Amino acid sequence: MVLKIKTPKYQQIIDFIKEKISNGEWPIGSKIPSQRVLAKRFEVNRSTIITALEELMADGLIEAKIGLGTYVANNTWTLLATNPPPDWDEHVKSGLLRPSQSTVQEINLAESNADLIQLSKGELSKDLFPLETMKSVLRRVSDQLEAFGYEEPKGFLPLREALSDYLKTIGIQASPSSILIVSGALQALQLISVGLLHRGSSVLLEQPSYLYSLRVFQSAGMKLTGLPIDEDGLIPNSISITNKQRNRAILYSIPCFHNPTGILMPDKRRQELLSICKKEQLPMIEDDIYRELWLDEIPPSPIKANDKHGHVLYLGSLSKSLSPGLRIGWIVGPEPVIERLSDIKMQTDYGSSSISQRVAAEWFKSGLYEQHLGLVREELKIRRTVMLETLEYYLSDIASWYTPKGGFFIWLKITSKISMKELYVKALDGGILLNPGSIYGQDSNRYLRLSYSYVSIADLKKGIYQLSKIIRELVDR
C-alpha cells in the first residue's frame, strides 16, 4: 500500500485502522495483522507501526494481549449503542470447519503477491498454460452450446464417459456410473469426510503429508494418524488396526510423486499396501492428482487398477496438469459410495460448473489433453534439472535431497539445526515464499518443500541463491 506524502505515515496508518474498525470490517474481538505484516503492507519500518498502535491503544480502540497479539477492543460507536454488537470472534471460533494453521493462512495470502519468488507454489507456471488451445476449446464448446441448467448429480455424462475411456488407459475399469465429478480433489476429501466416516474415525496417512496442512478431516471430527515412510513411500507393515478402529478408519495415500516428499511408490509396494488393506478390511483413498506429471518413465499402475473388491476410492484432477481454474476433479469408486457422495455434493453446491465440465470433456475427447501433457513434461523436466543443478552448486554442503521422478517438488533437508521459523520470515522479507516442512506434520523441523513448477527459471536460480545465503547466515551464528 502506498501512503500519501503530505500526511504523516503513522497518522495514515491510524486512519486506515480506524476506518477498518468503524465500518465493521474489523469487529470488536478480532485480531489485527501483526506489526511485521502491517510494516510490509505500508512499506514502513516497525517503529512507525508501533507509534500508530500506541495511539490507538491510548484511544481505547485496540489492546495488546501478551503472547497472543493485538485485538480490537472498542469502536467509535459502541459506547453510544444501547445493545453491544455481536461477538463475531466467538462465531468464527465455533464454526464447524477449523481454520488453517496460521502459517498456512499467511502462505495462502502471500501467494497472491506477484512480487514474491514463489518457491512454495504447487501449480504449473502461467507460461505453461495453453492459452491459445484453451481459447480454441472454449470457441468449440460455445459453438455447440445449448440451453443448460443443473447437471445430473454425478456430473456431465459426456465428461464421465470420456473419463471412463481415459481411466482404461491407466488400467482402471470404471463405468460412467462409478465416477463422480467434483470441484477439485479437495472437495472430494470434504465429501468423503462428511459422507463416509464416523465422527472420531482415524485417517491413516504418510507422515509428512499434504493433509496435515489442511483441516478438512479434523473439522469433521477425525484424527490423523501418521505412518512412517521410506524411499518407496508408506511402509505397509506399519499399518495396524485395533478392533476399536475397525470400521472407523480409512487410509489416505499419494503414491505418485507424493506431496511434499516427491516419492514415487513402486509397483511391489502398491501391491503390498492393497493386500494389507484387504486383510484389515481397511478402505483407502488413493490421491493420484500428480500421476500424469511423470518425467522419467510412466509410473506403475494405480492401486485402484488392481482393486477387484471396491477397497479403493480413486481421486484425480485437472488442477495440477492443466488448470486449477477449471475446478474439475473426479472420484472413482463402488456405485453405492458414488451415489452417496453425489447426493452430498448436490446438497453442497448442486453440481460443478457446467461450462467447466464441457470444456474438460472436450480436452479429453479431442486428444488435446494428451498432447498438452507431453509439452508439460518436457518443460517440467527442464525446470527440475535447473533446480537440481542450482541446489548442487549453492547448497550441496549444507543440505540434502533426492531426485524426484516427477511432480512439482523437491524435499530439502537442511543438515544443520536452525530456526525454520526465522528462515521462513527472513526469506519472506527477502522476497521469497517458502513452505516449511512443519505444515506437513514433519517431526524434524529442518525441511523445506521447494517447487520448481511455478516460477521462471531465472527466478528459480535467484531464489535458490538467496535462500542459500540466508541459511548460511543462520548456520554461522
Describe this structure in words.
- The structure is a single chain.
- The strands form 5 sheets. Strands 4-12-11-10-9-5-6 form a 7-stranded mixed β-sheet, sandwiched between helices. The protein has a 4-stranded antiparallel β-sheet with strand order 13-14-17-16, with helices on one face.
- The chain has 477 residues and is of the alpha/beta class.
- β7 (229-230) and β8 form a beta hairpin.
- α13 (368-395) runs parallel beside α15.
- It has 15 helices and 17 strands.
- It starts with 8 loop residues before the first helix and ends with a helix.
- The protein has helices at 9-22, 35-42, 46-58, 88-94, 102-110, 131-143, 157-168, 185-195, 216-219, 267-280, 335-348, 354-366, 368-395, 420-429, 457-475, and strands at residues 62-65, 69-72, 117-118, 179-182, 202-206, 223-227, 229-230, 233-234, 249-253, 284-287, 312-317, 329-332, 399-400, 409-414, 432-433, 435-436, 447-451.
- The radius of gyration is 25 Å and the shape is globular.
Residue ranges: pLDDT <50 for 5 or more in a row? 79-83
Placed side by side, the strands forming the largest sheet appear as: 4-12-11-10-9-5-6
Q: What is the terminal-to-terminal distance?
A: 34 Å
Number of strands: 17
Let me know the largest β-sheet: 7 strands, mixed
Principal-axes geometry comes out as globular
Mean pLDDT: 89
Family: In the C-terminal section; belongs to the class-I pyridoxal-phosphate-dependent aminotransferase family.
Protein name: GntR family transcriptional regulator
Cofactor: pyridoxal 5'-phosphate
Pfam families: Aminotran_1_2, GntR
